[in-house]
Structure formats: structure tokens, C-alpha cells
Design goal:
The chain is α/β, with parallel strands linked by helices and 364 residues long. The chain contains 13 helices and 10 strands. The chain binds fructose -6-phosphate. It is found in: Cytoplasm.
């Protein structure tokens, strides 16, 4: 049941800390605090390329994974939504790795992408939440997200669990390829282990989010901006808002704004920035400056240092705990989803069963 929560989605949002922790526990050795994945039927040192396919939020998790694989394991990685990927018939290198991401393990297009990858001689690894699913059965290897049943149609805890698996997989790949040293691996693993506690902090303090939800509920269109490994989190925030509040939202790479979407910006279009401190922060800050100069309401999600730098241009600010930029996408996903939930509640929509959507899309 829903317990004391108004909706399954609210209950499932509050499970983020536990689910992230449970998923990590499967992949981190508690004594060494190093990554310890189950045995995989391939050697990352010999993988020429990773190809990721999935749909919806699971695809955004995959895009974040792509960033991690490239940045820390230095593996060429490509990704596409399954409905495009399966018909693009991309040639894939012998012995490459095909990676599928899915909560249900039954999404028709993702399953077709899996079969295509097998035909193309890829090792096939699925990240699924349902270990008895079709994708799990048809894969060479499976890594399970420990999210438990997800009832709300809009994915929440399964998404952060997918991110955790992908981050650990990228760390394992980096170790196999010698692209990071033991000290860096320990630091990044340590950063992952801090996420459950930080996610709990975010869920506890939602007053700032309430005020922003009250603003968003008035909007017809909302723009979400992010860069680097947080660009997919902007996409996730926008998708979630569309799905459950029916407000039109777009996620954009912050640097793309001036190539089109900036034309939309006026005082009625809130701009939500997923902007943790990190190597790309100053770039995002200058994009936000441009939005503010055009009268946009800039709503900043950052840590204390980032929030201080954006004080002059932000209409509203949500200060999130400090985390290593490597794990920021996992933490920042939590307030994005929670914000969409709060807006939907204000709107009075059917949060757990949004119109026209199904939990598992088993037809193409
Ligand atoms: C978004 C959402 C959908 C799913 C997508 C894939 O909130 O729930 O976009 O992520 O339909 O579903 P799975 O992960 O079951 O393959």
C-alpha cells in the first residue's frame, strides 16, 4: 500500500535513499570500499565500443552512463532511443558491448534493440529492475537495480538505481582499462556511498521546492537546462513535468540555448538550471546570465558555492548538499522528480496514472 503517502509516486520518491543504498551495496565491497561487481562474461579492457539503448527515463540514465564511460573509462560510447536505434541498423564492432537499460525489462523497442545487438555480435548486458523479465532472459549478463516494485507510472527510484549501476559499471571499466588509479577509484566510490544520506537530506527539506512548484503551476512552458553529466537530468526533469503535470517542458543542453530555444524566453517561461559546481559550472552560469538578461525567471538548483555565484540572476534558488561532480546527476535527479510531483499535486492530476501513459510499453 501507500502507507502514509498521498500517492505511490510520493512513497517511491521517498525510497530513493534506501534504493540507492541497496543498489550500491550489491556493487561495493564494504571492507575495501572498492567496486566489486558480479563476474561479467567479457573483459572491459577488450571492449572496443559500448552501445546503449533504452526508452524514456531509462534512456536518460543511459545518456548519463555514456558520459561516465567516456570520461572515466575512456571507452567510445554511443547511445540512442531504442525506437530509432532498432531501425537505424547501425554497424557495430565485433565484440563490442550492447547495454540495455529498463525498469520493466519488457519494453518492446528496447527488447528489439537487444536482439539487434546480439545479431551484431555484441556482448549484451541488461540493467533491469525485474530479474525474471524478457530482457534479463535474453541477455548474456544482467545487473539488477534494487528498486523493488515501482507502481507509479512515472519512473522515480528505478531511475536513480539505474544511474548507480551505470556509475559502478563505469568505475569497474575504468579499473579494467587502467584509466583511473586506486586513489581516484576510492574517492569516487566514497562519493557514491554518500549519496543516500544526501538524497535523504534533499527529501527532508522541500520548502524551497514548494515555492517553486507554486510558480511552475502557472506556467505554460518550462525550459530545463543542464550540461555534461547533468544534461540528461535536465531531460529527466522536463519529461517528468510533462508526464504528470501536463505542462509543456523541454530539456536542453545549456549551450544549445542560443541556437534556438532562447527565442522562447520571456518572463512567463521559467528556466530551471541543473547546475552543480564542477568543471562546466561557469559555462552554464553564462548561459543563465543570457536567459536572465531576456527577462527569464531563472530557477537555480546548485550547491552553496554555485548558488552564491548565481545570486544576482536567480529568481529562486534551491541549495543542494555538496557532492562530487561525478555523482551530482544521481543527487540532482531527486529534486527534479520531486518538483514535478509537487506541481502535479497542485494541479490535481492523476499522479500515479497519468493520462495516456502505461507503466510497461510492450507494443511498439
Ligand atoms: C518516465 C517513464 C518512461 C519509462 C520508459 C521505459 O517517467 O516512466 O519514460 O522510463 O517507458 O520503461 P522501462 O524502463 O520499463 O523500459
Amino acid at each position: 500500500g501507500k502507507g502514509n503517502f498521498r500517492h505511490f509516486m510520493e512513497k517511491e520518491l521517498h525510497e530513493h535513499p534506501v534504493v540507492i543504498g541497496d543498489t550500491l551495496r550489491r556493487m561495493v565491497d564494504p571492507s575495501t570500499r572498492g567496486i566489486a561487481l558480479p563476474e561479467l562474461p567479457f573483459d572491459f579492457a577488450r571492449i572496443p565500443r559500448i552501445t546503449i539503448s533504452a526508452c524514456g527515463s531509462a534512456f536518460y540514465a543511459g545518456l548519463t552512463g555514456r558520459w561516465w564511460f567516456e570520461a572515466i573509462a575512456r571507452i567510445p560510447t554511443d547511445g540512442d532511443v531504442a525506437s530509432e536505434f532498432r531501425y537505424r541498423t547501425p554497424p557495430l564492432p565485433d565484440g563490442g558491448l550492447g547495454l540495455l537499460v529498463s525498469q520493466s525489462g519488457e519494453t518492446a523497442d528496447t527488447l528489439a534493440a537487444l536482439r539487434y545487438m546480439r545479431e551484431q555480435g555484441q556482448h549484451v548486458l541488461s540493467i533491469v529492475n525485474v530479474p525474471e523479465s524478457s530482457m534479463a532472459r535474453e541477455s548474456e549478463a544482467v545487473l539488477e537495480t534494487m528498486a523493488g516494485p515501482e507502481i507509479g507510472v512515472a519512473s522515480t527510484k528505478a531511475f536513480t538505481a539505474q544511474l548507480v549501476v551505470l556509475a559502478c559499471l563505469a568505475l569497474a571499466a575504468a579499473r579494467a582499462r587502467g584509466t583511473i588509479g586506486a586513489a581516484e577509484e576510492a574517492a569516487l566510490t566514497g562519493a557514491l556511498l554518500e549519496v543516500p544520506g544526501r538524497a535523504a537530506d534533499v527529501l527532508e527539506k522541500d520548502e524551497a521546492l514548494q515555492a517553486i512548484a507554486a510558480r511552475l503551476v502557472q506556467a505554460r512552458d518550462v525550459l530545463y537546462l543542464g550540461r555534461g553529466n547533468c544534461f540528461p537530468i535536465a531531460l529527466e526533469g522536463a519529461l517528468k513535468l510533462k508526464e504528470i503535470s501536463y505542462i509543456h517542458a523541454e530539456g536542453y543542453a545549456a549551450g544549445e540555448m542560443k541556437h534556438g530555444p532562447i527565442a522562447l524566453i520571456d518572463p512567463t517561461v521559467p528556466v530551471i538550471a541543473v547546475a552543480p559546481s564542477g568543471p562546466l559550472f561557469e559555462k552554464t552560469a553564462s548561459n543563465l546570465q543570457e536567459a536572465a538578461a531576456r527577462g527569464g525567471q531563472v530557477i537555480v538548483f546548485s550547491d552553496a558555492a554555485g548558488a552564491a555565484k548565481l545570486k544576482g540572476i536567480a529568481t529562486e534558488t534551491v541549495v543542494l548538499p555538496d557532492v562530487d561532480p561525478f555523482v551530482a546527476p544521481i543527487l540532482y535527479a531527486v529534486p527534479m522528480q520531486l518538483l514535478a510531483y509537487l506541481v502535479a499535486v497542485l494541479k490535481g492530476t492523476d499522479v500515479d496514472q497519468p493520462r495516456n501513459l502505461a507503466k510497461s510499453v510492450t507494443v511498439e
